[in-house]
Structure formats: structure tokens, C-alpha cells
Specification:
Chains A, B: InterPro entries: HTH_LacI (IPR000843), Lambda_DNA-bd_dom_sf (IPR010982), Peripla_BP/Lac1_sug-bd_dom (IPR001761), Peripla_BP_I (IPR028082). The structure is a homodimer. In chain A, 46% of the residues are buried. Chain A is elongated. Chain A has a six-stranded parallel sheet, sandwiched between helices. A six-stranded mixed sheet of chain A has the order 8-7-9-10-11-14, sandwiched between helices. Chain A is α/β, with parallel strands linked by helices. In chain A, α1 crosses α2. Helices cover 43% and strands 16% of the residues of chain A. In chain A, β7, α9 and β8 form a beta-alpha-beta unit. Chain A is built from twelve helices and 14 strands. The N terminus of chain A is likely disordered. Chain A has three domains: 44 residues, 434 Repressor (Amino-terminal Domain) (Orthogonal Bundle); 131 residues, 3-Layer(aba) Sandwich (Rossmann fold); 138 residues, Rossmann fold, CATH 3.40.50.2300. At the A-B interface, β1, α4, α5, β3 and α6 of A face β1, α4, α5, β3 and α6 of B. The structure holds a DNA duplex.
DNA sequence: TTGAAAGCGCTAACAT
DNA sequence: ATGTTAGCGCTTTCAA
């Protein structure tokens, strides 16, 4: 136990006194203001260093009415997609001198609403956001829009909120994945879909349906299961499908995690992969390479999306214009052994 | 493109004018000060709501000399251990009204040093930190210690910095894992160790060595490989070991990721798991359950460690005492098929 | 090139 | 129970 030492922080006033100059000169010198002589700058910086001065960002923010902080609201850090996005966000932010404050919503709309209030109170200069799967109403972003604080959204976005959007074509992702299975020779392709309240998952479902139709395959209702994509949902889906008289011979999983579970469940049910059943997941995780058979996937570029979101956001902050451009990031079909034609 | 609207923020002064009372009364009312009449509080809150007032945390922080922000410095968000820790940190922080600003060091000491400066400038109320594998000198934390700002460290800690420490017994983890393989009948147990500049990995190596010794197994130098645990390192290790006349029949991997790669590499080299080779990794990831054979591991409780770190930190912040207690979190041996006795 | 002074929005000691 | 006032540390007009 050590008592808190009451060493007051060094301020620009301390530096000013030390040099017998005014605080404003010190401030300007430290900020490399053009009108300050090199001599003064050097002296000021030397003393600052000597005294161990560090800018008080709180005071600076208050007086500049700018915090240099970007707020990030994401559903959960646990998913590799978001972890990568966060890395991208972090890196670009830091490289541009922004700090990042982060909140997870855990897919709860209420938490999302709460978090926007926190971000507003913190007076962030901009917001990067991926909505929860359930977010319908986006009124909680109005406060930023009204103040001209830009909000960049990625992946799960709402076009009702102005600001840059970074997305992938989820329809195409599912279409490509489904067609890949069909090209492999699959005749009975099933889809474990996500919640219908999320556009991302609706698009994926549409892509799935259209791929079947374009390839003259019937869409059997029992082959299209919608769920929250929990572990249990995935296991249930496999159980249901494998008890059908006409078992599917191909499965498109709406998420990376459900794909992994489907594959594991099918395997332990004695289904031979990929001979009897091909599987592909929408969303790729590191693990997909390690399982047996390795799991094919459509990769969504998380890192890139996070990176672009902040880049666009900073552009808005700097220009004081809110640009509602849409950036479509390319997806990538990763064919692995779970869907390999022999 | 929308032009930034210049709507000034609502302040307590606006509320004060509206009600013909003083700003301090407003401030007190909003903060539920005991000396303010219920009637006034209600009026103030009603008007605040009406006007869409939101506390300016920047101004509040400056005047209170307290930001309600906790800084977090971690090596990388990509690892599941840190992602979980971050979740724990986030949750406890938010539940206690703290915001969290996060920086990744990417295992770079220089970045770690830079990040401490940022955190200092941001005047965080406390710091949660997991050191890089290479951090030796910890002078960059002195600035916090001197000011009485608590620094809680977890996993990779330095006892040279005062403050709570949340750790696991890495010696025990490796000892337990190694002995588990020995009990299985393994006679030639190898260890892919991490860098010797990190205490965590040194402890693990010691645990490995001692388990061999206590069980009267020789420690052959070629069975103990130290590395940075990159993907390439893991592959190289497998190649080296599998070309030995006396191939190991058990491997203890110093990290979760290296364990997964070792297992995959061994499999594709045609080694039968677990018949010819048992594998266990120190650190568990979701993926360990999904690979074939499922990969045994010693689980390190990331979520719990993050949670405790913040709990202890907040205790220090509130009491204005820096408590250097050490919390040892229990580890868990997860026996899966990669080390299963038949 | 530098200084003086006001102000960012809130809090808190002191007064009433 | 409420008002007055000063101040947190910095930036920024305006003046010199």
C-alpha cells in the first residue's frame, strides 16, 4: 500500500514562469505555431522535456471543442471479424492521432442506445459503428447527425443514418457460395439463415434463393432454416436435416461460427465430408483452415472494412462534411476441402 | 454531402437561464446532490430532458480532475485470450461508469512506450496493462506511479511496477500439461517454448523441465526448442522433430496458436494423433474443440483475468491507495482427443 | 514575434 | 437550499 503522492501536474504555466514568458507563447511553441521564433520553440521544448510536461488532452479538448477521440460501437469483440475490424480501426485512428474509445453492445439494442449516449457525452469527434442484428430504429444516432458529428457504419449499416458506409455484397456472397456447391454437383442445397430482422442476413438468404432458382433447383422449405445462429441452432439444424428422407447434399451456413458447428455436428453424426455433404460458410475464421476437412468459406475483409471506415470518417471530420458514400469491399471465395470436387 | 449544422451544444447555463436559477444549482441537481430540493431536481431534470442536454464529460473531467476513463494496453486483440480479457475489462468498467480507451502494442515495446504517453495525456484514472513479450525496462510506467495513478497488470506483468497483478501459475500450467502426457505413457516429450525474454514463457519452460525431471525422464536438448511461436516456427519445429531418429511421442506447445499449427503440421506429415503423438497446448482457443483430433489444452481464464484486473484497479482508484496484491487465477486442464489414453 | 485576457462547460469552496 | 465566484489547463482572438 502506497499513499497517493500529491505531485501536481506540470502545466504550460509552469513552463511559462520558468522562462518568464506568457502561457500563450508556450502553447504556441509546443504546437509549432509558425509565428514563434525557433529560438523560443527550442527553449520551451527543452524546459517542457526537463519538467516532464505532458499535454493535458482534457483541457485541450475543452478549449478546442475537439477531442481527437473516435468512438467505436461494435456487437462483440469475440468474433474474429470484429477483432480484425477493430485492429484496422485502431491502426488508422492512431496513425492519424486519434484515440479510440470502444464499446460492445453484445447484440443488445438497449446497450447500443446507451453507448451512443456515452459517446455523445464524451464528445467524440466521430463514430464508427456496426449495428446489432436487431437494430431497426436508428433515432439514437440523430444527436450526432444534428451536430454534424460524422457516423461511419460498416457491415451492419443503416442507410437512414447519413455518413460513410462500408459493406460487402452479402447477396453476392451467398449467391457465389451456393453456386459453388451447385457447380460441385450438389442437388439439394440447404441454408442455415440468420435472423430476418437483419438486412445482412436477408441479403444472404436472397442470394441463396436466387442461386437455386437460376440453376433450376427447387427451393424446398425444409432446406431453409432461419435462426439466431447460436451453437444450439446449428446443431438442431443438422439434426433436422439429417433425419430428412432427402438429406441435403450441400449446406450454406450464414455465419462462420455456425459453419464450424454444422461441420462438426455432421461429422459426428457419421456424415462423410465432403463426399456425402459439402459445406461452406459465409464468413471465414482462422479455424476453418485447421478443421478436417478444412472448411470452405466466403471471406469478409474485416480488417479492411474497419480501416476504410475510419479513413472515411476522418475525411468527414476534417472536411466538416458528412459524405454518405458507400464503399463496397470485395469478398473472396475460399475453396477448401469441405467443398472440393474429386 | 450535408453541411455541418452549427447547433451549439446545450449547457447547464441554458438550463439555468430557462429556470432562472444558477448554473451551480443545475449542476448539483443533475448530480443528485443531497442539498437540492426534490422539486428543483425534478424541474431541472425535466428541462434538461426537454432541451436535450447531455453532460459534457470533457468539461466535467477537467474541473473534477478525474476522467472516468480507464486506459487499456494489450499486445493484440486478435488472440482469443486478449479478446476475452478485453470483454471482461469492458464489462466491469462500464458497470462502474468508466469508459475504456484501448491501445494495441502489437508486441512492440516502442508502441507500448508511446501508448503510455497517450494514456498519460488523456489523464486516464487508471491503467490496465499486459506487457509485450519483450518488455524489460518498465520506466514508462513511472509517470503513473509517481502521480498515484494505479496500474493493474495481468498475464504478462512486472513486479517492478506497483499495482495489482492478475496472473496464472504458468509453471504449474506447463508442469500439469507435461505430466498429463507422461501419465499417458509418453516417454519422449518435447516442448516448443516461447521467447526466453518473457517470464511467462520461462516459467512454462521450467514447469516442463521439472515435470520431466520429477518423472525421471531425460531432458534432451533437441526436444526443447525456443522460438517466437510464429506459424513458421511451429512448422519448423515439427519438421525438425519428425526427422529425428527418436521422434517425440508427446509435445507441449507454449501457446494455443502454435499448438494448433503443430497438430495440423504433424497430421499432414502423416503422424497419427494421438496414437503416435500426443499434443497439448498451453492456452485454449475455441478452435481446439473443432479440430481433429480435438486438441487438449490448459485453459487460461482470460475473461476472468480482465474482469479482476479492472475490479482491483477500481478499488485502487476509489481508495486512492495503490494495492500491490497478487491474484492467482486457477487454470484448467482440458483433456481432449489429442491426448487421450485408449 | 509575443502578451493579455477571455472563454471552453463544469464543479466546488465559500457565502447567504 | 441556493447563489457567487473562482478555477481546472489549454487555446485563441485581439492588441501591441
Amino acid at each position: 500500500m502506497a499513499l497517493k503522492e500529491q505531485k501536481r501536474e506540470i502545466t504550460i504555466n509552469d513552463i511559462a514562469k520558468e522562462l518568464n514568458i506568457s502561457p500563450s507563447t508556450v502553447s504556441r511553441a509546443l504546437n509549432d505555431n509558425a509565428k514563434i521564433s525557433e529560438a523560443t520553440k527550442e527553449k520551451v521544448k527543452a524546459v517542457a522535456q526537463d519538467l516532464g510536461y505532458e499535454l493535458n488532452l482534457v483541457a485541450s479538448s475543452l478549449s478546442k471543442n475537439k477531442t481527437n477521440v473516435i468512438g467505436v460501437i461494435i456487437p462483440n469483440i469475440g468474433s474474429q471479424f470484429f477483432a480484425k475490424a477493430l485492429s484496422g480501426i485502431q491502426e488508422v485512428a492512431r496513425a492519424n492521432g486519434y484515440n479510440v474509445i470502444i464499446c460492445q453492445t453484445n447484440e443488445s439494442v438497449q446497450q447500443e442506445v446507451d453507448m451512443t449516449r456515452v459517446m455523445n457525452s464524451a464528445r467524440v469527434d466521430g463514430l464508427v459503428c456496426c449495428l446489432t442484428m436487431e437494430t431497426k430504429d436508428v433515432g439514437h444516432f440523430d444527436v450526432f447527425t444534428k451536430k454534424g458529428i460524422p457516423v461511419a457504419m460498416f457491415d451492419r449499416v443503416s442507410y437512414a443514418v447519413p455518413g460513410p458506409k462500408i459493406v460487402v455484397d452479402n447477396y453476392e456472397a451467398a449467391y457465389t457460395a451456393t453456386e459453388h456447391l451447385i457447380n460441385l454437383g450438389c442437388k439439394r442445397v440447404a441454408h442455415l439463415a440468420g435472423t430476418t430482422s437483419s438486412k445482412v442476413f436477408c441479403d444472404r438468404t436472397e442470394g441463396f434463393k436466387d442461386a437455386l432458382q437460376k440453376n433450376d433447383l427447387p427451393l424446398l422449405p425444409q432446406y431453409l432454416l432461419s435462426s439466431d445462429l447460436t451453437e444450439q441452432d446449428a446443431r438442431d439444424a443438422v439434426r433436422i436435416w439429417m433425419n430428412l428422407p432427402d438429406k441435403p447434399d450441400g449446406i450454406v451456413a450464414a455465419s462462420a461460427s455456425s459453419g464450424l458447428i454444422i461441420s462438426a455436428a455432421a461429422k459426428s453424426a457419421g456424415v462423410r465430408l465432403p463426399e456425402d455433404l459439402s459445406i461452406i460458410s459465409l464468413g471465414n475464421e482462422r479455424c476453418n483452415e485447421f478443421v478436417t476437412p478444412s472448411l470452405s468459406a466466403v471471406d469478409m475483409p474485416g480488417y479492411d472494412m474497419g480501416k476504410s471506415a475510419v479513413e472515411q470518417l476522418i475525411k468527414c471530420i476534417k472536411s466538416e462534411k458528412v459524405d454518405s458514400s458507400i464503399t463496397l469491399k470485395p469478398i473472396q471465395l475460399l475453396i477448401r476441402n469441405s467443398s472440393f470436387k474429386h
